[in-house]
Amino acid sequence: MRFTFTNGAFAALVVGLGVTSSHAGEMPQVSAATGESAAAPAAATATLPPPSARVGRISLVLGKVEFRGPGDARWSAASVNDPVATGVALRTDPQSRAEIRVGADTIDLAEGTEIAVARLDQPMAEIAVKQGRIDLDIRRLIPGESIQLDVSRGGVWLLDQGRYDVDAGGGNHPTRITAFTGDARFVGSGSDLPIASGYQVQLSGERPMKAEIAATIGDDDFASWCKARSVDDLTLAAPYFVSREMTGYAALDAAGDWRSTDKYGEVWVPKALPADWAPYRDGHWRWLAPWGWSWVDDQPWGFATSHFGRWLFADGHWVWVPGGLTADPVWAPAVVDFLGTPGVGLSYADGPGPAIAWFPLAPDEVYWPSYTRDIDYIRSINRGSVADLGAIYFGANGEPPAKVTNGQFANRGFASVVPRAVFVGGEAIETALLTIPDRRLRNAPAIMGSPKIGAPPPVPVRVAAASSRTPQSAPQVTTARSTKTAAWDSIVRAAAIRSRNFQEAARARFTHLRVFGAAELTHLRHSIVLRVARADHAASEARRRIIRR
């Protein structure tokens, strides 16, 4: 991978220990699939590996926080419950803070921080910290898993569960890595430094880099704030009924009650909702590659209930059924089906154009995603909510069985319907709802998992024309700035590009970095990230070699 920062360039290479990464070339395939449409051949989807089962959420926004999804050309305002996955970038302005939760783990962003998620899946998380400071509260890190943080001076590996603080630094500003609890390791600029629990490493300078190790001192304002936001799972009921790997579980207890039922086991009932409330109505849609259209709920507790389990309407109120306990639940962009014609939507009388309609799936109704044809993945995403996983298979025609596509769909009558422009534009749903005759909703064909409508077109970037008095060098300056921006924009896409030139050079030059003890290799799992300091012109040449490949 190639990472470019404002204070200098360095390359980060993920070199497998004697194996080729199964993720090499993954993101280019995903990008090709983002133009979802009804005409897309099933064979193309079949070539895509299933996406990560693990997705985090933005759990707190204080002030101005911006979000950029995979492939997005522009930043947009971040909101609570925005999904955080591979390819997502976030930044806070100088007076703002944000928080991310992934399962039971928490990542807090200080003021003036920018990060990009280079990888987020079950065995590994990798986050590039361009600038600013983050605090991490890691509750689970089992053997075979690793967490890696990339900063301008090198890389940080978190080797055990615990609480950590990383100030990216860069230039004249020192990099600080603190292990309040847990163990970490820094590798970069010719240094290999263990960071024990209760210690801090301060790195300054470039060539040579100076390292100072000292015991941690008292918490400052940001560290105290992060510590105060820590959630004690022992005070919650939710972890007894759902996995702690289900992102969003910690928000449920304060907003609803757990009840025991004979048929569905433990269910969750939200409190203080309007009489006409229905799932997937109070929020908006956001395109997130490679999944496609993903629901962002406006309720602070709405992440877990929108992306896992099923909804049931009984005795005049809604009940969320998490299903059977699954250790590692698989995230879904929205557990719904759509109505109408794939790629078009739902036509209706006197309407100016087609609408988009969807409804929540009920217990034992199959969620069939459109972004993969991996049958094991499709079964795993339904595990706990569908009793007979054997009923999930591809028929002779390569499509889901009729029993799945032509089901009764208990919640069809609670469909939400909005104009197509509202859906695609990511606008608020509740204020744009259309009234459609119930008979039309009952008779409309169901579309499994997705409306088969592609990503919204990119917003054109307005470029001011240069005046005749502009010096000849001005276009060069603009190009340089665009190149730097594009390099940062591609920070995650580059993570999936195999660079054999980089790998061979790294193996030849940095073989000594692979001489770790067996115990340390277990912690570092399947990858070692090697960073090679390069001048800008050398990095540009290397990037051109990658593109040609």
Number of DSSP-assigned strands: 31
CATH topology of the largest domain: Jelly Rolls
Low-confidence stretches: 1-35, 37-41, 461-485, 487-549
Number of domain modules = 2
Overall geometry comes to elongated
Give an account of the 3D structure.
The protein is of the alpha+beta class and 549 residues long. The chain folds into two domains: 2-9 and 26-228, Jelly Rolls (Sandwich), CATH 2.60.120; 245-447, no CATH class. The chain contains twelve helices and 31 strands. Strands 6-3-8-9-12-15-16-19-20 form a nine-stranded antiparallel beta sheet, with no helix packed on it. It is elongated, with a radius of gyration of 24 Å. Residues 1-35, 37-41, 461-485 and 487-549 have low confidence and may be disordered.
